[in-house]
Amino acid sequence: MVGAAEVAARASAAGLDAARLPRHVAIIMDGNGRWATARKQDRTRGHEQGAMVVRAITTASVKLGIARLTLYAFSSENWSRPQLEVDFLMGLLERFLEGELATLMENGVRLEAIGSLERLPAAVRSTLERIIRTTSANSAMTLCLALSYGGRDELVDACRAIAALVAAGRLDAGQITASTLQAHLYAPAASDVDVVIRTAGEMRLSNFLIWQATYAEYVSVAPLWPDFSVSDYHAALAEYQRRERRFGGL
Ligand code: FPP
């Protein structure tokens, strides 16, 4: 567990206000392919380098006492990439999970995953489930990987589950509220996203956490994901802290 005094000192060293740090950060890790292409390397090299950045940003988030970090690691649309790239990403994910277990335990990080996980190869799924089980009592931070994830799929799945309850006579349609929908999301207990950061200068949400990010601040940063440093991360959080959040009020 990271102490409040430690967080305050670290935040201030990073030019951040410890009292106004986001609780839930979500990141769209973009630009791995461009990073590799610019170096005349295979796209897979970009993903490999990107995995190292995942480790650095996860650790930096724990140090700032951030409660939840959700990373868009593989979208439901990413299945349409060339099979070789999909296979590489799945293998990388499995190696990453195995390799990170000790660090997750050391840092008190609980792993979670959201998405159509049944579409993942069996080996990846069983590694994922094992690491989720092993880290389930950790409480410093939750690292949530969005895998085979699509925001619309998530809402459709929630609607199906709610419709089944109505059809079974266990829920009255007139009683459905935003809380009912929230309760049927992939991670129902997760708080709303405070800030979505996207690398590689892109300005799209790309079907990421469309329900949870309704009132999130959106910060687009220029570096490609494999170049995204901890100081770039701190700068993105400082940009978030400069925003005035009104949640539709005045
Ligand atoms: C976007 O870059 C990135 C992805 C589709 C995959 C993200 C994966 C990683 C960061 C590495 C592995 C992650 C974990 C958790 C181990 P892109 O390929 O779309 O880049 P481009 O837009 O430049 O082509």
Into which percentage range does the β-strand content fall?
Answer: 5-15%
Strand order of the largest sheet: 3-4-2-1-5-6
Please report the distance between the alpha carbons of the first and last residues.
36 Å
- Mean pLDDT comes to 96
Strand count, sense and barrel status of the largest sheet are:
6 strands, parallel
Class by alpha and beta content: alpha/beta
CATH-derived topology: Undecaprenyl pyrophosphate synthetase
| Residue windows where pLDDT falls under 50 for at least 5 positions | none
The run of helices and strands is HEHHEHEHEHHEEH
Can you give the helix content as a percent range? 40-55%
Please state the second-level CATH architecture.
Answer: 3-Layer(aba) Sandwich
Classified by CATH, the class is Alpha Beta
Summarize this entry quickly:
Helix content is 44%, strand content 14%.
Which keywords apply here?
binds farnesyl diphosphate; alpha/beta; six-stranded parallel sheet; Undecaprenyl pyrophosphate synthetase; 8 helices; 250 residues
